[in-house]
Amino acid sequence: METNELHRGRLIDHIQLVVRDLKASQDFYTAVFATLEIPLGGTGEGYFWADELFVSTASSEAAQGQLTGRHHLAFQAKDRATVDAFHKAALAHGGRDNGGPGERPYHPGYYAAFVLDPDGNNIEAVFHGEAQRNVPSVVVTF
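Below the sequence we write its predicted structure tokens.
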């Protein structure tokens, strides 16, 4: 399948991960998001969030007392060096290697790294190759 155009920002409104150890998860995600130039959006008692990702403890009202199962989340990287930095930061902050940085056969130029976060979620950073974006991000104001 040859893909020449990708659309982002239309499908997912938000994702919630419910984790065993909030501090370990916050340390992990703060470090990997720093490499991706994504700041934390906020924190509170039993949760933190960044962009569309909301991470909480099982005791949060939205979690209904249950941990989430294993998920695969792929974060966009601006270049190969960012994928490499993501992998290094993840391993230094509680992540486990699940596939080091390198080209993947999904399409030409697909460069990614995979790690398992402190709860075993498969977290990926991917650079799809040189491309032109019409804007750096979608901005929604109310």
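The chain has a mean pLDDT of 91.
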